[in-house]
Every structure is written in C-alpha cells, then in structure tokens.
Input
Amino acid sequence: MTGATTFEGRTRRARAIARALAKLLPDAKIALRYGSHWELVVAVVLSAQCTDKKVNEVTARLFKKYRKLDDYITTDQHKFEQDIRETGFFRAKTKNILAAARILKERFGGRVPCSMEELLTLPGVARKTANVILGNACGVIAGIAVDTHVKRFAQKFDLSDSRDPKRIERDLMALLPRAEWRTITYRLIDYGRHFCPARKHDCATHPLTKLYPRAGTIWPKAR
Output
C-alpha cells in the first residue's frame, strides 16, 4: 500500500489497518479493572500520566477501602492522597475525584451520566476520559479515545497532520466507520505495547509496517 497523504489514501490505509488489527488483536479491550461505573471513572482519572498496570495495583486496594460513592465524599483528602500517591499527580487527582464524587451525588443522583456533555462537567474528565467511560460503562460510542499510543500511531502511519488529541480524534473519526471507533483505541494501544513501543527500534518486520513502509522510519514523540 502506498504512502498517499490524500484523504482517500489515508482512508484506505486506516481501514486496511483496522482490518489487520481485528485479525491480529481481536480481543483487545480496556486494561483497567473496575466493578462499577463510578470505579471506572476513578480508574480512568488515575490513569492520566500513569500505566494501567500501576493503576490496577492501586485500585485493587482502593476499591476495597472505598466501596461506595459516599465513602469518597466523606473521606479525608490527605488520607486519599496517600492512598493514590503511587499513580503520580496525586494531589490534583485527589481533588478531581473527590469533587466528581460530590457532583455525582448532588447533580446526578449518585449515578454516572451517559452523555458526553454531562461527563465533561466532572473534574478530571476530558474528552478522552469521557470516551472511555461512555464506551465501557454506557455502550455509547461518541468518538475515539486518543491516548499517547493512539497519538503516536496516528502520526507514525500518517493518519493525521496534528499533534492535538482532539484534532487527531476528528481525523480518525473521519477515516474510520463508527463501528470501528470503540475497538480501534484498544487495538492501537495493544499494538503499541506488544509490537511497536515508543522507543526507537527496528520495526521493519512489524505486522502493520507492510501497509505503510515509511512508518518504519518515523519516530514521533510519545507526548
């Protein structure tokens, strides 16, 4: 497949990549562990600038200690900071999570809303976070969650000219049918983890490089 940079060329390449990933990583899914919609919100907020593996280690303890939404509302802020310290940026994350818990209680009757507009009113929830919550908690596909793996892949395989996650999301949404939006995020994440990490390496023989050989020489920054 050629390295066409026209919209039509990118569309063909994106859809060929999606088909190849469906065969290569058919079971790719969210790696975060959670037991309720609220726990998903907490886990996704904690995952900012932190690996899913570390978040799962922290939430394994956290979700045993804080079992209900009210537990987050009544907890001491300093104690909660220590509970999530290992995820990094723990003060900001604490502030956002505890404020989000209060908002859910006061405005939404203790339930996680299932609309993009409402989710974006929660502290710590941006569009990427909201897409993850909507897709996994509500079964609502409103867009494509663009994390560092997806961002790097879009640049490496020339699917977007931008480094801005919102613009990359719009570009990918235009290239791929809606049916692909939810799964493509997790397949691209798993591809980055298992085949093509951010550090420079020889990726000439990677499964998707044959679809766009130039990808073997492009090394975009992860962030």
